[in-house]
Amino acid sequence: MKKNSTQNQTVSSQVDENEEIEWEVRPGGMLVQKRDDVVDDTAAASTGGPTIKITVSHGPARHEVHIPAQSSFGDIKNALVQKTGLEAKDQRLLFRGKEKEDGEHLHMAGVKDRSKLLLLEDPASKERKLEEISKNTEISKACEAIAGVRAEVDKLSERVAAMEVAVDGGTKIAEKEFLVSTELLMRQLLKLDGIEAEGEAKMQRKAEVRRVQNFVETLDNLKARNSNPNSNSSSNAVSVTAQWETFDSGVGSLNAPTSSSSSKVTQDWEQFD
User: Fold this and answer.
1) Which of 46-55, 65-74, 147-156, 176-185 has the lowest mean pLDDT?
2) How deeply is 109 buried, as exposed, middle or buried, from its count of CB atoms within 10 A (0-12, 13-18, 19+)?
3) Which of 171, 197, 239, 246 supports an S-S bond with 202, CB 3.0-4.6 Å?
């Protein structure tokens, strides 16, 4: 029993020694004991590897990016968003003259510490920006044109207001004044119709068109009142007379008689007299 116990202790000692010693094959084929720093590198790789510094050229600008060695090119793009103002989807990264995909890893492509990358803006992104600048310029020009029309309409609105005060006061206005004012407003409508507008400018144009149309309608009403200043008072008088006649002739009946019966009663009274 003592002999077996001694043998077991010897085997256990040998196993412990084998577990503690790790071996690796060097490029020359030599088998050597594995170094501790390699173990440390392996642990670092599990967290993305050691941090490396990469210089990214973007036009005349140079950007330094500190990133784990086993990151992807997509990670670099995300890190460059704030530095360049370009969205990740609008970036193109080149290394050694070749464009790299977002999912490709740095260490697999040969990117090391102090490596240099070239950043280009995607042509489609440039085209979109140019279109947006052009569109904003057109909107700005349209807004300026609408503002010019608005200034003219403001002057005409003062004229319409003065005419309204005159008509309300019973002053007779020459019919030519209504025709001229309406013509001037219609010219402003034609100007607005010729302005090509989008977005905010389109809304402004629509509002100004409606404003001009309201002034034209006001002039039409003023013109009618100016032509017959007593039309409103006459109609009111006729209405009151008719109501009184209906009341007098309708006494004792549930329904008021028609205008024809009212005329007949008047004729009867005349015959009676």
Assistant:
1) 46-55
2) middle
3) 197
Both tokens of 38, joined, read 């390699």
CB neighbour burial string for 152-184, b if at least 16 within 10 angstroms, e if fewer: ebeebbebbeebeeebeeeeebeeebbeebbeb
What is the distance between the alpha carbons of residues 264 and 245, in angstroms, rounded to a whole number? 12
Q: How far apart (Å, rounded) are the C-alpha atoms in residues 179 and 232?
A: 23
Q: Is 10 a residue whose pLDDT tops 50?
A: no
Predicted confidence (pLDDT) per residue in 183-213, tens digit: 999 999 999 999 988 888 999 999 999 999 9
DSSP β-ladder status, 98-99 and 91-95:
antiparallel
In the chain, the N- to C-terminal Cα span, in Å, equals: 162
- Residue 66: phi and psi, rounded to 5, are -100, 120
Rounded-to-integer distance, Cα 158 and Cα 154, Å: 7
At 187, list the tokens: 């010219």
DSSP class of residue 94?
E
Q: How many CA atoms lie within 13 A of 75 on its CB side?
A: 14
